[in-house]
């Protein structure tokens, strides 16, 4: 059945587990995630970005969500909008059957001016007021996702050394988080704690903690009833990099967020863990393998099926690691 983010994460908080939120863009991804959830009796979050909506069409996504709910009626599924950038994109997602939306007012608030603060609080509050009327959950974001290693924010990454942000600027301020939640009434809060989007998070194998666990702990202590969300939480497994590169890919050496760090986060109030890059890598490795091993192959099912199997395996690993397995 379809459930809201609030319903799912309230249960996760009560039982102290985390839920991976996998990005989907197509039928193969939706089916692979649900097969994993079904085999482990795990509740699932499927999220679609604005890019996914443009790629697949809202009507296609809507019917795809209906379809997986019909195929797996016993699995609780939250359908979530990832990084909504305007109240209007949140409202159209709700019209398409999403049970949860992210209003990311921090996209425009990287400079951290008072005007950015007012903008973020204003748009987020506007969305929560409307969404809650219809029983839809809302995720907000406060902070700049970026690498503590490079000092680069998601907006600046790759633009050289200029404009590097300090540790302080890259991390969500706990007191501001309290104010933000009080003013906006969001159900879940995405925080900046040292992770960044995409495959290139860390250029060395992390030794010790790569995330600002103290920030997570402080925010959780001040806001025990708010569900924390970690973006940029792909682990970028070396095995997946190797498969891609073994079959003609050219990924540069890179490290993601270690699963143990996410598990520590879950002990401190992190309930939703966003994963897209690992999804992409799991599928692409198999597509490359099949096409390279058999260049005469031209039936898409021959490479999409192994891609789905690899994604299902990844999802099962995360459901086990985050304690989601058995909680449906
Ligand atoms: O945070 C962004 C997600 O990875 C979605 O990426 O906008 O390319 O679909 P996308
Ligand atoms: P990754 O790029 O680490 O998978 O992060 C995805 C994400 O945060 C989507 O909102
Ligand atoms: Na941000
Ligand atoms: Zn994100």
Automatic annotation (TrEMBL):
Cofactor(s) recorded in Swiss-Prot or TrEMBL: Zn(2+)
PROSITE patterns: ALDOLASE_CLASS_II_1, ALDOLASE_CLASS_II_2
Keyword DNA-binding: no
Enzyme Commission (EC) number: 4.1.2.13
GO MF term list: fructose-bisphosphate aldolase activity; zinc ion binding
Gene3D superfamilies, per database record: Aldolase class I
GO BP of this protein: glycolytic process; reductive pentose-phosphate cycle
Keyword Metal-binding in annotation: yes
Top-rank lineage group of the source organism: Bacteria
Pathway(s) this gene product operates in, as recorded in its UniProt entry: Carbohydrate degradation; glycolysis; D-glyceraldehyde 3-phosphate and glycerone phosphate from D-glucose: step 4/4; Carbohydrate biosynthesis; Calvin cycle
Record function comment: Catalyzes the aldol condensation of dihydroxyacetone phosphate (DHAP or glycerone-phosphate) with glyceraldehyde 3-phosphate (G3P) to form fructose 1,6-bisphosphate (FBP) in gluconeogenesis and the reverse reaction in glycolysis.
Enzyme class label: lyase
Pfam families per the UniProt record, alphabetical: F_bP_aldolase
Protein name: Fructose-1,6-bisphosphate aldolase
Binding-site positions, dihydroxyacetone phosphate: 198, 232-234, 274-277
Residues annotated as binding Zn(2+) 1: 83, 197, 231
Active-site residue numbers: 82 (proton donor)
């Amino acid at each position: 059945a379809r459930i809201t983010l609030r319903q799912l994460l309230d249960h996760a908080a009560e039982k102290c587990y985390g839920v991976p939120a996998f990005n989907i863009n197509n039928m193969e991804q939706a089916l692979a995630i649900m097969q994993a959830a079904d085999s482990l009796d795990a509740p699932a979050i499927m999220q679609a970005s604005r890019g996914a909506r443009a790629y697949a069409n809202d009507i296609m996504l809507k019917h795809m969500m209906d379809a997986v709910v019909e195929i797996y009626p016993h699995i609780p599924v939250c359908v979530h909008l990832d990084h909504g950038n305007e109240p209007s994109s949140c409202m159209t997602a709700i019209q398409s059957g999403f049970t949860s939306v992210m209003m990311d007012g921090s996209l425009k608030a990287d400079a951290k001016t008072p005007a950015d603060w007012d903008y973020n609080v204003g748009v987020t509050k506007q969305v929560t007021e409307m969404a809650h009327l219809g029983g839809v959950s809302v995720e907000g974001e406060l902070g700049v996702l970026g690498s503590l290693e490079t000092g680069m924010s998601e907006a600046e990454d790759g633009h050289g050394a200029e404009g590097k942000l300090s540790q302080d600027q890259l991390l969500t301020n706990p007191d501001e988080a309290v104010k933000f939640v009080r003013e906006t009434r969001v159900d879940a809060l995405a925080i900046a704690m040292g992770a960044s989007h995409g495959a290139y998070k860390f250029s060395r194998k992390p030794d010790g903690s790569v995330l600002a666990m103290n920030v997570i702990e402080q925010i959780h202590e001040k806001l025990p009833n708010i569900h924390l969300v970690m973006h940029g939480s792909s682990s970028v497994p070396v095995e997946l990099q190797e498969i891609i590169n073994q079959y003609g890919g050219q990924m540069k050496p890179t490290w993601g967020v270690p699963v143990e760090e996410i598990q520590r986060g879950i002990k401190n109030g992190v309930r939703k863990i966003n994963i897209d890059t690992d999804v992409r890598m799991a599928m692409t490795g198999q597509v490359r393998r099949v096409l390279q091993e058999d260049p005469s192959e031209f039936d898409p099912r021959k490479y999409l099926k192994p891609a789905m199997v690899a994604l299902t395996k990844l999802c099962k690993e995360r459901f086990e690691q985050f304690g989601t397995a058995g909680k449906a």
